[in-house]
Amino acid sequence: MPEPTVGGVSAGDVPAAEVPVGLAADHFQSYSVVGLLAVVGVLFVAVAFGAGRLLRPVVPTPEKLLTYECGVDPVGEGWAHTQVRYYVYAFLYVIFAVDSIFLFPWATVFADPGYGATTLVEMFVFLGFLAVGLLYAYKKGVLSWT
Length: 146
Hints:
There is one protein chain. The protein is built from 3 helices and 2 strands; from the N terminus they run ββααα. It has helices at about 25-55, 85-110, 115-140; strands spanning about 5, 10. The protein has a two-stranded antiparallel ribbon. The protein starts with a strand and ends in a 7-residue tail after the last helix.
């Protein structure tokens, strides 16, 4: 049975120290750079927080420990009702913003030869689902600002 070769030279002819380790070493070496940068980043943040804790003045008073919101002293309970419609508008905006992201790749594929009719049908099906969702939201009265 022939001996395994490395670069055309048999492993028995080359001392063990000169045999290349291979791609695994290069692979792990590239990850060691990423790991080293992560450790340096964590140490940088830890040193910054530690320096801030050591250098800041600590004089707790009742006024400093009070909850503060926009210059208004807290009065009453901490429970407040929020209108849901603001969240619904934000949710609808996010839905249509994400859907517009899908329109850009569609426009680039639509220009390629051989994809025109299929891509056009798929996009109208997609836009149809969006229209049904928007119609449903309109029928439920979600889009009326009262």
